[in-house]
Amino acid sequence: MSDAQPTVYLVDDDASVLKALRRLLSGAGWSVEAFSSSQEFLDRHRDDVPGCLVLDVAMPGLNGLELQEALDARGSLLPVIFLTGHGDIPMSVRAIKRGAVDFLTKPVDGEDLFAAIRAAFGKGQALREARAEMDGIERRLAALTPREREVLAHIVSGRLNKQIAADLGTVEKTIKVHRARVMEKMQVRSLAELVRLAERAGIKSR
Amino acid sequence: MNWVTILWPMMGAACLTLGFVHLLIWFRRGASIAHLWFFVFTVSVTCYTAFELAMMLAPTVEEFRPVQRWLQVPVFVLVVSTIWFVRSFFNTGRLWLALAIVGLRVLVLGLNFVSPQSVNYLEINSLQFIELWGGVSVPVARGVTNPWNALAGFSYALFGVFVADASVQLWRRNGRHDRRRAVLIGGSLTFLVFFSAALILPTHWGVLTTPYVVAWLVLAPLFAMGYELVEDVFHATQLARRVAAGEAQVRQNAERLGLALKGARLAFWDWDIAGGKVYLSDRWQEMLGGAAQPLVTTFPALAVMVHPDDFPELRRHLREALKGIVPAYEVEHRVSTPSGEWLWIHTRGEVVARNANGRALRMAGVNEDITARKVAEERFRLVVEASPSAMIMVDEEGNIALLNAQAERAFGYARKELLGHPVETLIPERFRSSHPGLRAGYFDDPSVRTMGAGRDLYGRRKDGSEIPVEVGLNPISTPEGRFTLASVIDITERRNIEMEAAQRRSELAHLSRVAMLGELSGALAHELNQPLAAILSNAQAAQRLLAGGSQYPGEVREILDDIVEDNKRAGAVIRALRVLLRKEEVAHHALDINDVALDVLRLMRSDLLNRNVRWNTNLAPGLPRVLGDGIQLQQVLLNLVMNACDAVADNKGEERRLEVRTGRGEGGSVLASVSDRGKGIPAGDLERVFEPFVTTKPHGMGLGLSVCKTIVEAHRGHIWAKNNAGPGATVCVELPAHAQNVA
Lengths: 206, 743
Description:
The structure holds two protein chains of two kinds. By secondary structure, chain A is an alpha/beta fold. Chain A has helices at residues 15-27, 38-44, 64-73, 89-97, 110-143, 146-156, 161-168, 172-185, 191-200; strands at residues 7-11, 31-35, 51-56, 80-84, 102-105. Chain B is built from 21 helices and 21 strands. In chain B, strand 20 (718-723) and strand 21 (729-735) form a beta hairpin. The mean pLDDT of chain B is 85. Chain A binds chain B through residues 14, 16-17, 19-21, 23-24, 27-28, 57-60, 63, 66, 83-86, 88, 105-110, and chain B through 522-523, 525-538, 540-541, 544-545, 548, 559, 562, 565-566, 569, 606, 609-610, 612, 614.
């Protein structure tokens, strides 16, 4: 767990279920926020708070799966655990494919729910870290000139300086200078490291 | 020639003429015998007149003597004819007195001829001529008086008494002409007798000297008698004319009666019981196939023509009428015709004359040929008999007049046990008292209709068991009065079939319900899992609290309260499910259709959520209740909601929507409908969708709506589908309001 206390967001239209879950989770020491509809959650939720969403599928208005889609569209990293009274397989497959942490059936055992929440928190942490790394890479890529980006593409394709110079219609010495700049701007020491970053940034080799 | 010789012959001639007129009247007109006696009287008067004239003209004693003797003959005839005239014309006069007088006169006549000269004189010695008016002298006898002359005087006295007595009797009778006659004839005769006696007898005794001029004295009674007789003839003629007119009237009446009898095709009969003769009018022979001629026959001759089966009945009626137990009788019987056929006769009769002891002397009546009617009746009876259903004909008093073998079989009675008995015999006791009133109501407004519309009718068999029946009523008008022909159908079999069909329907509904719940199982599991989830979470939260040595018992109590609440919720879901799955007798209760709709939506809630279908409700408040089976009506609405869900399955977002409405229909009925926003139903399928195995869904069985239709129709309602003005279709259910709701 990170330094900020993660919160469990509960969304269920069934008041008694909502109340019971909140009671259970609070009793287990979690910070819990409960919402009786998807819309209420969307209106009040801020993405920067770490936590996870425990979501009922069948609800009037926006149902669980639709709320998941809406959060995706907003680029939310909030991990989702589905709780359903009666889930069928296609529904659960669809949910998992969209990145749900788990698909639990009511009535759910407290320990199972706790485990899922813990896993969700872990996943949330990982996602946030991955997002932070990506942000760094992208920031560094943004510092490259167009020429340097071109050269980078050639480098990650494993081509030699001489070859690159020929391709770009310049001399080998110039390529060498570009290469040094790229390595510096991307803050890498080795070619392998550079290739890994480029891959993560989705830069395709030529 | 002198006035005596002119007057006396004239008197005689006039007298004789008058006499002959009356002889003619008596002879030609058949008038009273009095006319004949009058004729005899005039003849005697004429003779007497002639003898008197002869005496007056006799110049000598020798010529006078024989005339004097023979004069007694016309006197005798005159007295006798007068007496019998009085008796026959007056209808009075004592017979013994009359006979005594006649006897005395016979004796006097005999003595007259036995005596030497006459009964008046033993010896006439001389004639004394007396001068009369106008120089006429007539002789008066002078001689020795015959002592027997006293007897003649006595007979005259009796004669006078007789006439006077007869006249007084006539006077007392006080008829129309009686008093005048008594005065005129009686008076003049009495005057004649006493006056002539007073003139003549003293002369015979030599006290007086008066000639025989008595003839003119006779004129008074003669004219009185003649006048009265003519008066009588005149009256008789008038009477005859009146009688003739009366006879014409009688003849006309008889003719009219004949025409009436003929028109009515009635044969008149007249039985002279004492004379042993029966007179029959010409129609009788005509009825029997002969020529139209009257017939005179005897009672036994007629009796043998009567059908042996009908005779005892006829004889019974006749006896009652003859003894006077009944004033008249009517009976229908058969008689054989000469050609060997049987003719149905309706005969009516009554005793028209009895003797002092009350014995019937004469009986009369009419016969009518009713064969055609009997044949029609027989045909009607055969038609009724041939009817496959039980038929019972009831008269206006409610007595059974006719029934067929089917009716005997249906009710277990023999025909004779029912004929003439009240139709209420066939009705269970608990309905008996109200039936006569209903029956009378029907006769007031008869029409072809079914009895007791809308009510279950029962018949009562002889063994006391009851059968459910359906009764059709037909009014029948006949010459014998109004009847009702009831056709009774034993519907036990139909009831059983109906019950079996209801059983099947209920089973089918159940199966369809089970299938539907199968489809809904996911949603129902969800519905059940919701409270279970809450219970589990609450219980674990409590465990945790207790494990941590909670210092907050209030919180645990709150948790337990919630657990109990959710448990109840789960129980309610299970109960609802059990109800729908249960296979039980259909039970009709007064239901609020809104409750049914809400129950259905509660059950469907999860399914609707799972399918992401939104719903609206638009339930009218204060609807009348409907009489129905809650489970089956739930099933109908459940089915319609599920169909609506299927219909909007391909829609997106807000268009995945359905609406449940309730409201009032026409005539106080209750409506419930489910609308969707799907593709609608092809116009040609709007009715077909309610047929079994017709479906618009890719995976539908096509049973749902047909089961709905069966259920709704079993509730006396109807169900139909229509396409909305906007997208989608609506299925409506209309149910009659429960009768007790209608104010």
